[in-house]
Specification:
The chain has two helices and no strands. By secondary structure, the protein is mainly alpha-helical. The relative contact order is 0.04.
Length: 94
C-alpha cells in the first residue's frame, strides 16, 4: 500500500511538473505569436500603402541617366573605337 502511494505521488509530481512546464512555455510563446501576427499584419498594410503611394507618382526620372555619366560612356565608346582602329592599322603594318 505504501509503495502504491509513493508511486501515485511520483506520478502526481511528474504531472504537476509537466503542467508547470507547459504553462511556462505557453506564457512565453503566446505573446510572441501575438506580436508576430500583429507585426506581420502591420507590415503588409504598410507595404501595400507604400506601393500605392509609389504607383501614384511619376517615376520615369529614376530611369534617366545622369548627363555626366552619358558623356563619359560616349567618350569611352569613342576611345574603344579609336583603339580598335589603331590596332587594326598596326596589325595591317605587321
Amino acid at each position: 500500500m505504501l509503495l502504491e502511494l509513493d508511486q501515485v505521488n511520483i506520478v502526481k509530481n511528474l504531472c504537476n511538473s509537466y503542467f508547470d512546464s507547459v504553462v511556462y512555455i505557453l506564457k512565453d510563446t503566446i505573446p510572441k505569436k501575438i506580436m508576430f501576427y500583429l507585426v506581420k499584419a502591420s507590415q503588409l498594410e504598410l507595404s501595400s500603402k507604400l506601393f500605392e503611394k509609389l504607383k501614384q507618382q511619376d517615376m520615369t526620372y529614376l530611369l534617366m541617366e545622369y548627363e555626366h555619366i552619358n558623356q563619359r560612356r560616349n567618350n569611352l565608346e569613342k576611345n574603344i573605337k579609336d583603339l580598335q582602329l589603331a590596332k587594326g592599322l598596326i596589325d595591317g603594318l605587321l
